[in-house]
């Protein structure tokens, strides 16, 4: 996974969620972007399906980079981050995990949380 860069060599924030399939991909994604929101989800999860359009809008409309992790395909990665229920959102700022939110959240609450780390 290689990020595009701007002329000042900082990575361009993707405007769509990026699928993450391994610890190394997640580490690289977090290292490349200053604020990263990761959605741990499962295809069979109704609340995850409700959260999906919100996560997509956050990717499009905020300065955070958004990643998604399918917990069924990446069980070890989910365990590493203490994901016991889905959806779980993990927020990273400057390479460090700063928040973990379980369950469906309102878009404005998530946007406010994300923007508190992007300014």
UniProtKB/TrEMBL annotation:
<keyword id="KW-0813">Transport</keyword>
<keyword id="KW-0676">Redox-active center</keyword>
<protein>
    <submittedName>
        <fullName>Thioredoxin</fullName>
    </submittedName>
</protein>
<keyword id="KW-1015">Disulfide bond</keyword>
<dbReference type="InterPro" id="IPR017937">
    <property type="entry name" value="Thioredoxin_CS"/>
</dbReference>
<dbReference type="InterPro" id="IPR005746">
    <property type="entry name" value="Thioredoxin"/>
</dbReference>
<feature type="active site" description="Nucleophile">
    <location>
        <position position="45"/>
    </location>
</feature>
<dbReference type="InterPro" id="IPR013766">
    <property type="entry name" value="Thioredoxin_domain"/>
</dbReference>
<keyword id="KW-0249">Electron transport</keyword>
<dbReference type="InterPro" id="IPR036249">
    <property type="entry name" value="Thioredoxin-like_sf"/>
</dbReference>
<feature type="domain" description="Thioredoxin">
    <location>
        <begin position="1"/>
        <end position="119"/>
    </location>
</feature>
<feature type="disulfide bond" description="Redox-active">
    <location>
        <begin position="45"/>
        <end position="48"/>
    </location>
</feature>
<feature type="active site" description="Nucleophile">
    <location>
        <position position="48"/>
    </location>
</feature>
<dbReference type="Pfam" id="PF00085">
    <property type="entry name" value="Thioredoxin"/>
</dbReference>
<feature type="site" description="Contributes to redox potential value">
    <location>
        <position position="47"/>
    </location>
</feature>
<feature type="site" description="Deprotonates C-terminal active site Cys">
    <location>
        <position position="39"/>
    </location>
</feature>
<feature type="site" description="Contributes to redox potential value">
    <location>
        <position position="46"/>
    </location>
</feature>
């Amino acid at each position: 996974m290689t990020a595009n860069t701007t002329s000042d060599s900082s990575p361009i924030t993707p405007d769509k969620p990026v699928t993450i399939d391994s610890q190394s991909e997640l580490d690289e994604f977090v290292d490349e972007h200053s604020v990263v929101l990761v959605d741990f989800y499962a295809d069979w999860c109704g609340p995850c399906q409700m959260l999906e359009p919100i996560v997509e809008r956050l990717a499009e409309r905020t300065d955070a980079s958004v990643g998604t992790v399918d917990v069924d395909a990446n069980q070890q990665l989910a365990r590493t981050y203490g994901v016991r229920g889905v959806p779980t959102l993990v927020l990273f700022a400057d390479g460090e995990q700063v928040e973990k939110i379980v369950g469906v959240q309102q878009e404005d609450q998530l946007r406010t949380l994300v923007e508190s780390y992007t300014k």
